[in-house]
Design goal:
Layout lengths: L11 E5 L5 H26 L4 H13 L2 H26 L7 H19 L5 H30 L3 H22 L30 H20 L1 H11 L1 H6 L4 H28 L10 H11 L4 H25 L3 H23 E5 L9
Antiparallel strand pairs: 1-2
């Protein structure tokens, strides 16, 4: 007697990959970008009737079409990269710091405060030095607070840091209103426009040179810190398993607090760069959402500071190009954002295929008794 049994299996299932070679992982990312551009081209033709190649050319021109645009792109990349560097140690430790926006604002507010009250009263080099110290301390304090509560009472760091963003926004809004010119306008305006007190100097004829140079140095330092220092090793162990960290004698509370102080301090430096090197003022929108964008930059780069240069540049390039598309073709800004969103979606989606693969079922065999 023969019984036939059919083994029912799904068409495919998801399997985690082993360590994929770097060349293959970047090849997957490049293919995803090409696929995204093809999809964007199809959407452009269907929705607007414009030539997609002209649209892409305009996008490139908007980001790097002139020397001024190149430096503007480099400046925006530097700021985004700085904030990305700031959130990376915390995220590598699996402390979900969503409060970079607030930490940047507090650093910016500290810098602006020094410019308003000490401008023209002390030498410019001394003023900038005071601004550096003040912004680092302000950002570090804003990072320390949620870390202290997490380390001692295991509070939810995601909600804690997120809520502190709103507190920082309201604090900045209060002082902006208090210092507004004219009084009651709610707008400070450019601080020290005649003396340029507290402004970073122009080097090689470029006002953004200091910002870019500082962030390059910070990137190298952060890479060395995370990869080769004892502190970098400890936060990696804590991120892997707190129990393992405790077992081998690592003080987890100390590592959490220390890492978040570092994260907040770097955000404070980003605030300094925006006030002293770019805007020369402060508003509640100074951070401009970069604190959240930086999370994506850090994740896409796998917490590697060197790779973050590429991911930050890509994001800024798309943002700059999208703005140019809206202006040149007279399209709604939302359409440019749609194209940017499609490209980012494909890039993020590529991470799935880097970490996982689809395994299709094999041909079903009959079981005979």
């Amino acid at each position: 007697m023969k019984n036939k049994e059919k083994v029912s299996e799904p068409l495919f299932h998801i399997v985690k990959r082993g360590n994929l070679p770097t060349t293959k992982s970047w090849l997957i990312r490049i293919v995803s970008i090409v696929a995204a551009l093809i999809v964007c081209g199809i959407v452009t033709v269907l929705v607007t009737g414009e030539n997609p190649f002209e649209v892409y050319g305009t996008m490139i021109s908007g980001a790097v079409g002139t020397e001024r645009k190149i430096w503007s792109t480099a400046q925006n990349t530097a700021i985004l990269l700085c904030i990305s560097l700031a959130v990376t140690p915390a995220f590598k430790m699996k402390f979900w710091n969503i409060g970079a926006e607030g930490q940047v604002l507090m650093g910016a507010l500290a810098s602006a405060t020094c410019m308003i009250f000490l401008g023209d009263k002390i030498p410019n080099w001394a003023l900038i030095l005071v601004m550096v110290v003040a912004s680092i301390i302000a950002g570090a304090i804003w990072g320390f607070i949620p870390a202290f509560f997490k380390a001692n009472w295991n509070t939810n760091e995601t909600l804690f840091t997120l809520m502190m963003n709103y507190i920082a926004i309201q604090i900045v809004s209060y002082f902006v209103f208090e210092w507004s010119v004219p009084a009651g306008s709610g707008h400070i305006g450019i601080i020290n426009p005649t003396s340029n007190a507290g402004w970073f100097p122009t080097i090689f004829g470029q006002k953004y040179f200091c910002n870019v140079a500082i962030v390059i140095v910070l990137t190298v330092i952060m890479y060395i810190y995370l990869k080769y220092s004892k502190h970098g090793y400890e936060l990696s162990v804590v991120g892997g398993s707190e129990n393992t960290a405790k077992y081998i004698g690592i003080n987890v509370k100390k590592v959490v607090i220390r890492t978040m102080i570092l994260s907040g301090a770097l955000c404070g430096i980003a605030g300094l760069l925006m006030v002293a090197g770019t805007d020369h003022t402060v508003t509640r929108d100074t951070a401009g959402g970069r604190g959240f964008t930086a999370i994506m930059v850090s994740w896409l780069a796998k917490f590697n500071p060197i790779y973050m240069i590429l991911t930050a540049l890509l994001i800024v390039f798309l943002q700059k190009g999208a703005g140019e598309i809206s202006m040149i073709f007279g399209l709604n800004e939302s359409f440019a954002d749609i194209l940017t969103g499609i490209i980012i979606f494909f890039i993020i989606g590529s991470e799935f295929f880097i970490n996982y693969k689809l395994k299709f079922r094999e041909k079903t065999k009959e079981v005979k008794d």
